[in-house]
Specification:
With 471 residues, this protein is an alpha/beta fold. The chain folds into two domains: 4-230 and 444-456, Glycogen Phosphorylase B (Rossmann fold, 3-Layer(aba) Sandwich); 233-441, 3-Layer(aba) Sandwich (Rossmann fold). It has 16 helices and 16 strands. The chain has helices spanning 25-36, 73-92, 103-120, 140-146, 164-167, 173-179, 191-205, 233-239, 243-256, 274-287, 309-329, 346-355, 370-377, 410-422, 425-441, 444-456, and strands spanning 4-10, 39-49, 57-61, 64-72, 129-133, 153-156, 185-188, 208-209, 215-217, 220-226, 260-265, 295-300, 337-340, 358-361, 386-390, 403-405. The strands form two sheets. Strands 3-4-2-1-5-6-7-10-9-8 form a ten-stranded mixed beta sheet, with helices on both faces. It has a six-stranded parallel beta sheet with strand order 13-12-11-14-15-16, sandwiched between helices. Helix 2 (73-92) crosses helix 3 (103-120), helix 3 (103-120) crosses helix 4 and helix 10 crosses helix 14 (410-422).
Length: 471
């Protein structure tokens, strides 16, 4: 193999790890991968231009070469805000009631995938492995083939794959899924999402699924498997000694004034179950007046996708709900919910996690959820906090020692908060030790090694670059 070519919707120039912001799991994971492998990261710059030119902006930072292109405003409206985030995202998170099916969205989605393929194809050398990421670029493998790329191409989906009965509600769903048959390897976060894909292939495409995960449809054979993504646990633990982490820890502990702290950290999105979380916390306050004045919920929820109207509605709902809860239960010296609409650097989040007694991670549906793993990685080994985790997050398959709950049930959320706050130290230690072992072993490095090795057709990890690339 010459290099690893990573293609994703967005590319952010890698920063020193101590300075990385509160980025999504994809950005952090890919930066970690490309720091060790010779490679190129290609995608959209996030900038708009009046007319698409295909001009590539090459940069080099922290040992990673990035190649980005600007998109037209129409591209962004139809491909990104439209098909990706108003059609596929809600559908794949089981929210068919929020999915919008617009012919122009599909046309823009295909157009941008074609533009990605035409632009990146000349950068791909014969021995490169190509790794395509996420729901924005499902048909990119097919487009690369049509542009003459014969390399091994893999695709990894970071979000859930919906059940067959939901997937068929997507107009031209067969056309989208058949485009995936040009990949050599398709990866999912969990066995559940993999099984949903297999079920679709059998029911809709008449394909055959083999015990080893290979699927056959017509004359095409594609490898499929689950590759649960992790966090860079060792790096996250190192962040705890950074000044930003220490300051965040001390700030939260000081502001809590001896009260227990329950923390939630999520991008502002309807799939994260923040409204349900607030309602569950409200039920806890109703049923446990003895905890009034002794506990507070810190919810950090930086806004995202502001150009998609459903996200404006979420923010309005949470603003009103948090205000009502505080108005109903607060005292002069106690506020039940501190609701913050801004992001924090990773080191700052590490400090907040370390200072919290309980993490409330309640997505209604999530491909994995790395907040749960980061919280565990940040805990004090002698006095760890408790993780409450939705059973509908991919992470629940690995983190069975969390308190697993149904986030739709206010009673389950309430009971879990009460149990977590009262949990004795020996039980907290037992649960944390089991989870940190999984977080450390099944980290982002293992995820990357396993996927790239499978894509390369090797039983072990591919060789690293002979020497680190200069920044």
């Amino acid at each position: 193999m010459s290099r690893l070519i990573v293609i994703s919707n967005r590319v952010s120039t890698p920063k020193p790890r101590s300075a990385e912001g509160a980025q999504g799991g994809l950005a952090v994971a890919l930066a970690a991968a490309l720091r060790e492998y010779r490679g190129l990261w290609f995608g959209w710059s996030g900038e708009k231009t009046e007319e698409f030119t295909g001009q590539i902006n090459l940069q080099r930072a922290e040992g990673v070469t990035t190649a980005t292109i600007d998109l037209e405003e129409q591209d962004v409206d139809e491909y990104y805000n439209g098909y990706a985030n108003r059609t596929l995202w809600p559908l794949f998170h089981y929210r068919i009631d929020l999915a919008e099916f617009d012919r122009s969205f599909g046309a823009g989605y295909e157009r941008v995938n074609e533009r990605f393929a035409e632009t990146v194809a000349p950068l791909i050398e014969p021995d490169d492995l190509v790794w395509v990421h996420d729901y924005h670029l499902v048909p990119l493998g097919q487009q690369l083939r049509q542009n003459g790329v014969k390399n091994r191409i893999g695709f990894f989906l970071h979000i859930p794959w919906p059940p067959h009965r939901l997937m068929v509600s997507l107009p031209f769903h067969q056309r989208l899924v058949r485009s995936m048959l040009d990949y050599d390897l398709i990866g999912f976060q969990t066995e559940e999402w993999l099984e949903s894909f297999h079920h679709y292939v059998e029911r809709e495409l008449g394909g055959t699924v083999h015990p080893d995960g290979r699927i056959e449809v017509g004359d095409r054979t594609v490898e499929t498997a689950a590759f649960p993504i992790g966090v860079d646990a060792a790096d996250f633990e190192r962040l705890l000694v950074a000044r930003d982490a220490i300051n965040a820890f001390e700030t939260l502990r000081r502001s809590a004034e001896g009260k227990k702290v329950v923390i939630g950290v999520d991008r502002l999105d309807y799939s994260k179950g923040i409204e349900e979380r607030f309602n569950g916390y409200r039920r806890f306050l109703e049923e446990n007046p003895d905890w009034h004045g002794k506990v507070s919920l810190l919810q950090i929820a930086p806004p995202s996708r502001g150009e998609v109207h459903t996200y404006e509605a979420i923010r309005d709902t949470l603003d009103a709900l948090s205000g009502r809860i505080n108005g109903e239960f607060a005292h002069v010296d106690w506020v039940p919910i501190r609701y913050v609409n801004q992001g924090y650097p990773r080191a700052g989040l590490a400090g907040f996690y370390r200072a919290a007694d309980v993490a409330l991670v309640t997505p209604l549906r999530d491909g994995m959820n790395l907040v749960a793993k980061e919280f565990v990685a940040a805990q004090d080994p002698d006095d760890p906090g408790v993780l409450i985790l939705s059973r509908f997050a991919g992470a629940a398959h690995q983190m069975k020692d969390a308190i697993l709950i149904n986030p739709y049930s206010k009673d389950e959320v309430s009971d879990a908060i009460r149990a977590a706050l009262a949990m004795p130290r020996p039980e907290r230690l037992r649960r944390w030790e089991a989870m940190i072992d999984s977080v450390r072993k099944e980290d982002v490095l293992a995820w990357r090694h396993d996927f790239v090795a499978a894509l390369a057709g090797q039983g072990a990890s591919i060789p690293l670059a002979a020497e680190p690339l200069p920044a």
